[in-house]
Amino acid sequence: RAHRLRFRADLSFRLLGLRRFSRPRRLFRSESLFETRLSPFGDDSQGYVVAALRDVTARVEAEDQMRRVLRTLDAAEDAFFIMDGESLRFEYVNQGACRQVGYRDDQLLGMTPMHINPVLTEQELRSALAQASAHIDSPIVMRTLHRRRDGSDVPVEMALHVAPPAQDGSVSIILVARDVSSRIEAEEQMHRSEEAMRQAEQVIAVADERERIARDPHDTVIQRLFASGLGLQALASRVEPE
User: Fold this and answer.
1) How many Å apart are CA 212 and CA 218, to the nearest integer?
2) How far apart are CA 178 and CA 99, in angstroms?
3) For all residues of the chain together, what is the average pLDDT?
4) Phi-psi region of 151 (alpha: psi -120 to 50; beta: other; left: phi over 0)
5) How far apart are CA 225 and CA 230, in angstroms?
């Protein structure tokens, strides 16, 4: 009734928004969302209003599902970029991308991968995209760098996916970048441990060799002393005790 009174005070087309109505339970056991559109017509003596109700349940559910997907992508630690296949400009970035490179999403939109990658050229990227287009089932994975807004570099593992063409024929590229700083640090730590182990084995081998070299003369001396002792004992048996 309040909507109707306001509409009568200002007779112009308006959209009342979403309303939930129960469908006839003998047909459906659910509720639907409707969008109401009011349009006035008629002359000054007699006015009428056309109320058009459109079932938008499927659209609202699709929008809710899209919002859930976007919230899930924003919660991910990996950086997700969607870029135009022709211009290579970012059309969507998640919050993981903003955290990884230190830019806001509105700053990243319109950039290209070359703006945040100090080593990747456009020719190399298009060559990788050509390979990804030829192998749609398996993404192209490469290890590269992302340069943060503060100038520091982040080692990333980047996967390129080519999305199916849209209805207008345009192609989008999905770029997923994972920060591999911790992995590289762990690999370097493992390499350092392996190198320390090899050095320790070399030290032990040198020590064993030195011990063997030192033991050989020692055994020879003991043998000679033992032989001399036996000779002295034989000689003592043939002479006077003094």
Assistant:
1) 10
2) 12
3) 81
4) left
5) 9
Closest CA to 98 of 77, 121, 69, 84: 77
Q: What is the CA radius of gyration of the chain?
A: 41
pTM greater than the 0.85 cutoff: no
Query: Who contacts 188 (Cβ-Cβ below 8 Å, separation ≥6)?
Result: none
Q: Each residue of 163-194: pLDDT tens digit?
A: 888 778 888 899 999 999 888 888 878 888 88
| Separation CA 235–CA 215 (nearest Å) | 30
Tallying the residues shown for the chain, one arrives at 242
Tens-place pLDDT, residues 136-165: 777 888 899 999 999 999 999 999 988 888
Structure-token pair, residue 153: 């570099």
